[in-house]
Amino acid sequence: MSRTNISDDLMYRLLVSSVKDYAIYMLDEEGTVLNWNAGAAHIKGYSVDDIVGKNYSCFFSDDDRRRGVPWDNLEMARRLGHFADEGWRYRKDGTAFWASVVIDPVYDPQGSLLGFAKVTRDLSEQQAATRRFEHQARHDALTGVANRRGIHEKLEEQLPQVAYGSRIAVHYLDLDRFKAVNDNLGHEMGDEVLRSATRRFQAVLGQNGIVGRLGGDEFVALQFGSPTLDAIQATARSLVEAMNEPVPVAGKLARVGVSVGTAIAPSNGYDTESILRCADLALYQAKRDGRGCARQYSDEMDSLARARTALELEVREAVDQRRFSLDYQPIVKAADGEVAGYEALLRWRASSGQIVPPSVFIPVVEDLGLISSLGEWVLRSACSEAMRWSHNIYVSVNVSAAQLRDAELIGVVDRILADTGLSPERLELEITESTVLDSVETAEGILRNLRNRGIGVALDDFGTGFSSLSLVKKLPLTRIKIDKSFVDQISDDSQSTAVIDAVLALCDGYGLSTTAEGVENSNQRYILTAKGCDSLQGYLFGRPGPADHEHIDHAVTP
Ligand code: C2E
Ligand code: MG
Ligand code: MG
Questions:
Q1: With a 6 A CB cut-off, is 329 part of the ligand 1 pocket?
Q2: In the predicted structure, residue 558 carries a pLDDT above the cut 80
Q3: What gap in Å lies between CA 202 and CA 173, rounded to an integer?
Q4: Residue 13: pLDDT above 90?
Q5: pLDDT for res 554
Q6: Checking DSSP bridges between strand 209-215 and strand 218-223, what pairing results, if any?
Q7: pLDDT tens per residue, range 363-384
Q8: Ligand 2: distance of its center to the CA of 435 in Å?
Q9: Which residue(s) pair with 396 in the sheet?
Q10: Domains in the chain, ordered, with CATH?
Q11: Across the beta sheet with 218-223, what order do the strands follow?
């Protein structure tokens, strides 16, 4: 049928009757249905024969009908010239749907009311989508628990209760060694670990609170029901214990732990922001205290945090401007006291004039993510300094975990050796157990590359960690540095050297050189030498000092 053959009237009728997404129909003055389009049949489930001639009040609930709502709506449309509303309407089968309704009065050309034009739209799907969206906005897709926003809102909603004497605990949780799981087992396994952790935390909280995931490996547990201080501590402990058992994923065991920081409302704060900040500070302390433990917020943490922020600012500036220096401490051959090498030790004088020990500022540099850049400066300075020494003396440089996680290090070392002209055999890198533990495989690969170039690798502070033995088997080491704490114990009874004996035997077995650290007296020197330790380092032979040639050239034997 061509367009010209149909009348305007028919065209309108066809248009209206074929619309599917809107129920469009007319009512007379009393609300009797006069006609019915395809959309109306689709949305409300009545056919034309079912409904034409019936009153449109059948779309309303009994209660609405009793209150006269259908007729009030028509009256309003007539009086105001338009009526629009949203509300529950009912289909033929009795099911309800959320409807958007528009009613317009229709007049004949003389101005008398003919009835009403009514348009209804089913908003259920839209509403479901909105609800879905609302849910998604407050929940974590991976674990299904509340996300950061959900947790904030929940806390905001509950916090006013503390004004009436109730108590709420906020536990901040951060998984330990999660990065290693992600790196070594892959992201899918990582996701599985996050889901397992969520379930374990939920089991601890039970009906007494909720668990949320803030992102990454960070979680929060809110403990409601005005728990006692004991109950709060017990929950924090249980959260830690929940991760003691390794998580089985795809036939492997992922060993992650969790650190917990707890803050309590109202004693630590009344509003969401301050209570979360306290929990965060407590978590930071738990991490500092060796992870896998729970800490409760105290005001002291706040002042420490402020001092730390100030320190961070100053350290950042110092790194930017390379305001550091290196001291060198001799390492001597046990046999004849000749200098075999020097260890480079980083030094920093804060703006107050105070010398800040590396054990204090290096962790800050690491946390700021600046250690690779500072470490590169240390390497370059130490290597160029070593070029001024005799050719048989090596330089030993400490490296941090972040440097050993980054294959960049190999390129950096190559460039420095090329630029300074130092032969690789004269460079030794010192790593510690904690340096490599986060990602042993990555570290192993990087160290092997360095070893292949002839660079030495020493395991520093040996015996202070837990995994020292397994690391000796796994890593391509050339030397072990026996920690000062064992040297300190040396006395005349044989018991005191049991550990040193074992380490020396181990090194013998693996063909590794040994250096004893922190040798301060001749008795220690005598015993260590007699037992076959290769080299010695300590105040007895020389304190760390600046690289003026005076110091280097004359710092030999006592
Ligand atoms: P470390 O590598 O085990 O260095 C030996 C530490 O023992 C040095 O402390 C040294 O001054 C001290 N020491 C040496 N002989 C004796 C002794 O006879 N008696 C006593 N009481 N102490 C002795 P320092 O310089 O405070 O360094 C502490 C740690 O800081 C180092 O331990 C090392 O782990 C780290 N560090 C130093 N420089 C760097 C660096 O450039 N990069 C990195 N990543 N870490 C560094
Ligand atoms: Mg060292
Ligand atoms: Mg050491």
A1: yes
A2: no
A3: 12
A4: no
A5: 44
A6: antiparallel
A7: 999 999 999 999 999 999 999 9
A8: 12
A9: 343, 428
A10: 3-127 (3.30.450.20), 142-297 (3.30.70.270), 315-537 (3.20.20.450)
A11: 209-215, 218-223, 168-176, 257-265, 294-296
91 has pLDDT over 90? yes
Strands (DSSP E) contained in 29-133 are 83-90, 96-107, 113-122
pLDDT of residue 1 exceeding 70: no
Contacts of 136 (CB under 8 A, 6+ apart): none
Half-sphere exposure at residue 277, Cβ-oriented, CA atoms within 13 angstroms:
13
Residue 489 has what pLDDT?
A: 93
Q: How many helices (H) and strands (E) does the chain have?
A: 23, 21
Inter-residue contact 129 to 37 (CB < 8 Å): no
By alpha-carbon position, which residue is closest to atom 4 of ligand 1? 345
Straight-line distance from the first to the last Cα atom of the chain, in angstroms, rounded to the nearest whole number: 114
Closest atom of ligand 1 relative to the 327 alpha carbon? 25
Q: What's this model's pTM, rounded to 2 decimal places?
A: 0.66
Could you tell me if 356 and 365 are in contact, meaning their C-beta atoms sit under 8 angstroms apart?
Answer: no
**Whole-angstrom distance, CA of residue 532 vs CA of residue 553:** 26
* 378 ligand 1 Cβ < 6 A: yes
The ligand that comes nearest to the alpha carbon of residue 435 is 1
